[in-house]
Fold these 2 entries.
Entry 1:
Amino acid sequence: MNLNTLIEQRSSTSHYDASKPLADSQITELMRLATLAPSAYHFQNWKLIAVRSSTAKARLKDIAMGQTQVESAAVTFIICGTLMPHQQLTTALRPSLDAGALPQEIADSWVTSANASYADNPQLQRDEAIRSASLAAMTLILAAEGMGLSTGTIGGFDTPAMIEAFALNAEEIPVILVTAGYAAEKRPQKPRRPLSEVVELV
Ligand SMILES: Cc1cc2nc3c(=O)[nH]c(=O)nc-3n(C[C@H](O)[C@H](O)[C@H](O)COP(=O)(O)O)c2cc1C
């Protein structure tokens, strides 16, 4: 399907056909595509957890305010953003250097600049974690829809409970959940606010 059409037809699903699972290879492919999202300095400051076993789904449903789509969806991805991105930037850029996709002097300047900007700025680290995780989440949604799956987004969850249940460390912030699977019921996309209220050409 053409990407514009896919965007025009996407809507959030909260009722899935629980009898239709996804293969782990499909789940992994969705996460691979999500990690092709852009991130500042190519930090790739994210972590994705695929919740697809019935025990893990039950745990996640409790944390997500009892929202039943977490159980009926084939998989729910916990998309985390990570703090202290400057500390792992040299490692994150290594494959780009090896592939000749990034000149050494640019990589060096990014590391210097990122250290100067992020090291003493926890607010910026958090903003960046949320930006990166959000872009990864939207990329995953479009990839899943492109595979003929339905998706939904969940922001309603208990963050401390999530951190504990999925053993996230102090640098991993759960930002958003994305459910994916085969819809039991498909709703039309809701109309949006008038363009004139939300856009500006300058
Ligand atoms: C950050 C965020 C948090 C959301 N949280 C929830 C949620 O907890 N439960 C839910 O059913 N839908 C949730 N949604 C889905 C929105 O209600 C939905 O995207 C919105 O109504 C627009 O509908 P559409 O996605 O079908 O276009 C969330 C969406 C976003 C982007």
Entry 2:
Amino acid sequence: MPKNQNSTSADRQTLIECRSVWKLYGEKAKKVAGKHGQDLTSDILKEEGVISAARNVSFDVNKGEIFVIMGLSGSGKSTMLRCMTGLAEPTLGSLKVKGTDLATASRDELTTIRRHTMGMVFQDFALLPHLSVLDNIAFPLRVQGARKNERLARAREMMALVGLSGRENYWPHELSGGQQQRVGIARSLTTEPDIWFLDEPFSALDPLIRMEMQNEFLRLQNLLHKSIVFVTHDFDEAVRLADRIAIMEGGRVVQIGTPEELIMQPANEYVAEFTEKIPRSKVVRVRTIMGKVQAGLAGAPVNADALVGDVAGKVLDSGDPLPVADETGQIIGAIEARQVAAVLMNLGIAA
Ligand SMILES: Nc1ncnc2c1ncn2[C@@H]1O[C@H](COP(=O)(O)OP(=O)(O)OP(=O)(O)O)[C@@H](O)[C@H]1O
Ligand SMILES: [Mg+2]
């Protein structure tokens, strides 16, 4: 099932609009951007000694979705996150959050958006070492000026939510890495943000704890239904968590799509290399590989949105094609062993 089942195209609401954003670094960055605008080329940047951390990046983040930004180190992921959260200013292009243009917003408006609309989690946890775990989690509410009782009560709620009750008076250094990041997650949620930004939150954790935290993250999202921008350089993680993934390479977005779209139709070699190792059966849905409805279909229908891996046994066991039903129960296709086998063998779609 898609992680986000709430939004259809009819009720889709855009929370972040990112349009032709460039982020340039170097002494001449502003001057070069002013002179060439969106016509900047690699040659011009090289000649002028300007570094482009983001190059002509456009995308929308929709309400309720998990939007993952994925790419190798240095591809511009954190730069885009910093621009979206108002921590960095795009050199060119525009960024709107909930309809407010970050470039023209007043300082007060920006602060209000940052404090009330956005929650942030960082790779290195960024906890305050001289504050207890409880006070760390309550800290964003202190910045907002909330009363002590209120903020401690809320922080306790958040501690229960991430499974840390009982450790209120620990110092951050007395916790494991996974526990410290739970504190980071709890802290980012205390202000009830609409948009949750996470920059490689699990990269510093070992693989088992990392997987536990990914499950925990999905559990929280099922409860909270936030709109999420999640940065990672790990394609497995991206596929597990994302509704949609934007792949960045050298400051550019080279492809945006669902995990299934990226895996079935990678836009270039760079994307293909990431997708190669992912078992197709864990990503491809029945709908994508099914054939046409045919006469004489019998047996219990297979769900069109089921993952091929989850129904493979049933289809392979049946000697005949099985009917495929959509969410209303209507039969919309047929699936047979040959199509399933092609996916299981990572061969793509059987003709
Ligand atoms: N303040 C800065 N001054 C100059 N160059 C910068 C600055 N910040 C980022 N860059 C450059 O911009 C590029 C993109 O950096 P960014 O931090 O966005 O990458 P990233 O995809 O988040 O990488 P990582 O996975 O290592 O965190 C890099 O080449 C980096 O060196
Ligand atoms: Mg980064």
